[in-house]
Amino acid sequence: MKLPAIFAASAIVTVGAAATIHHASSAETSAPAADVAAAEALTEDAGHNSEAGLAAAAEHDAPPLPAPVPAEFAEWIIKASGECEGVTPGQIAAQLFAESTFRVDAVSYANAQGPAQFTPETWEAWGTDADGDGVKDPFSIPDSVTAQAKYMCHNLESVEQAIHDGKAEGDAVDLALASYNAGFGAILRFGGMPSGGDYTTQTQPYVEKIRDLEQAFNAYFEARV
Prior knowledge:
Radius of gyration: 17 Å
Number of helices: 9
Strand order of the largest sheet: 1-2
CATH topology: Lysozyme
Structural class: mainly alpha
Number of strands: 2
Helix content: 40-55%
């Protein structure tokens, strides 16, 4: 699919249930910003791929999970959620599921890469060497999950400032997710949630999907600590 001119800096992600506009380049965004014990408990107690792990969420009256959280993601999701108050473990997990269904090797036809589906341009601005191996690797779970959280925190801060300045209206988390998908510039152009064309068919459903999934994943994490 060829995007209109307003989407020229974005990519289309085809991994998962539906294609989405994804990650504006650094030109569209303004470049700027856990509990380890809990993470260990998460990964060691029954395991995220086990039936016991899924049952734990059900016992807490959680919404149904679309998929278990892979154990290798759990520790880094919890650590990354400490980047800022507005980013929760459930939100990070929901985004990863929506972006790549936790596939480490995911690559879209527009070359968005890794479990968090960063385009090379956005990764250049936000890539992180979270595991200290000397390489900023979008296919690395620690690097991509940490960069995802940092980028979301930046989007949230930018959106909150825009709302404060009267440049945007709406729920800050919704708009931060839309920024992750379509770029912060789209939020400013529309004064809130972008609409029309691919924004209506892709960005808005992307935000709605993650907010719905976030509830289930948050309940799952809460049940495991």
